[in-house]
Amino acid sequence: MRRRPDVPDIPPRQRGEPSVTMGANALSPTLAPRHRPVRSFVLRQGRMSPAQQRALDELLPRFGIPFAPAPIDFDREFGRSAPRVLEIGFGMGETTAAIARARPGDDFLGIEVHSPGVGSLLKRVAELGLTNVRVVRHDAVEALATMIPPASLARVHVFFPDPWPKKRHHKRRLLTPGFVRELALRLAPAGRLHVATDWEEYAQEILATLAQEPLLENTACGFAPRPEYRPLTKFEARGLKLGHGVRDLVFCRRSGAASIPSP
């Protein structure tokens, strides 16, 4: 899910993972701070190819869901009732399209704020003839808080969120305890939260954060093997050859867990 190197909008890492479209400190509308939230992305759109722009112009009206402060009617948007999968920060859409193609019985909602990535995914959707993908082009903090109903998701994917490696930037990291709580509340019982990262220090932090969330339980003893449904991207394969490790974390929503936020 790496962004292509010709898209120069990914601070602070060059050729890094997509800047996930989240504000790390924001929670739900009732819990959101009144001051300006710290965001885990910087919106610099980068270069839009003609094909991406054409896909954005022609396909977003068909496959896009406009941001609105109201819950999505998934059955109406997809025209059926099926397991729903949310992907946060899908980058250029390579992984999203591949999983959606391999799992036609599931419906996929991708949230991404960067227009080149949205255009890229829409282009793939059209080329592959996919009907089970929808896109929200918006800050996912607001989209999650107002558009995703509680206990409505079978899975949440957060693949390669920006690790913000400099210590002074750690406040921008996405997977804080508060935000993990909000994700857990959107999972149906036994629904799964799947995170992948190639930044070891961040992987350890994420593992500790997920393990401390009472609504979730680990499906493995520590890190999980890469599930077969998550394809190996070209960037990831190249990193593995160079000895760069990739960590997958798969946690599930406890079936008997309470469905209301902690006070």
Summarize the structure.
This protein has 263 residues and is of the alpha/beta class. The protein is built from eight helices and seven strands; from the N terminus they run H-H-E-H-E-H-E-H-E-H-E-H-E-H-E.
Description of the structure:
- Helices cover 30% and strands 16% of the residues.
- Helix 1 crosses helix 4.
- Strand 2 (107-111), helix 4 (115-128) and strand 3 form a beta-alpha-beta unit.
- The chain has a seven-stranded mixed beta sheet with strand order 3-2-1-4-5-7-6, sandwiched between helices.
- The chain has eight helices and seven strands.
- The chain has one domain (50-253): Vaccinia Virus protein VP39 (Rossmann fold).
